[in-house]
Amino acid sequence: MPEGKATAASLHHVLSEGRGPIGLLLVHALGADLRMWEDFTRVWDRPEPVLACDLRNAGRSPTTGTPVTPAEHAQDLDALRRACGLEAVVVVGCAIGAMVAAVYAASYPTATAGLVLTNPAFRTTPSARTMLAERATLVRRDGMAALLPGAVERAFLAQPHDARYDLYMERFAAQDAEAYALSCLAVLDTDIAADLGRIRCPSLLVAGAHDTLLPPAIAREMHDLLPGSQLVLDEAAAHFIPYQNPRGFRDRVSDFLHRDVLPALASSRSIS
Questions:
Q1: Domains of the chain, with CATH numbers?
Q2: Cis omega (within 30 of 0) on the bond before 215?
Q3: pTM
Q4: How far apart are CA 192 and CA 189, in angstroms?
Q5: What does the pLDDT look like over 5-32, one tens digit per residue?
């Protein structure tokens, strides 16, 4: 397979057993991979199957040599969804992964039964652009260690420095520096506001009270741009809600499916 060309089969992924008309499609944050969902999937107790993957330039998926845009990631995800035999999905994205998830929902409306955006953002602010560009330069010159411990500490503000924190620190440090740099560069000028206006599925936004990288004020702006969306605040978590509060996040997603997604899906199918 030529470098930079990903197929559904080449994306490293895990699909749990399950049943029902839809599945969950999990999109990880920048600087992470599908393992950030391990605790969430471990406590997931609904029948829906769960599909998690490493995006290109992350984890065990291909490294492209070039930045991959949210729209290109969305194309990869839909190819993977079809290859895995999922008719429709609730797309769940975290941080930059939430941008990808929102673009997916806008681009593939018939395949998107619902949308959950945690620690969300719809554009890269000037300050974030500067930070990401500096991070890309630093890791290319000095490796991932140049960002530690500060990058992880900011994401874990007001969180316990427990085994989960240590594991994230270890995984962050071990990732490929060039792949991380490319992922940073891919979103320097991202603005998906126009995509949000095209989303019509039930949508839930979950902000972290202690998130200083993508604070709740950004989630509120996004909520205003996303028709019919719901916004809730996780009082305990910071920048990686599904990783830092997996049981609480599980409960929110489960309630959202039961209360909003499945009734809307049943209604649409009865009409058709």
A1: 13-123+191-271 (3.40.50.1820)
A2: no
A3: 0.95
A4: 10
A5: 445 558 999 999 998 879 999 999 999 9
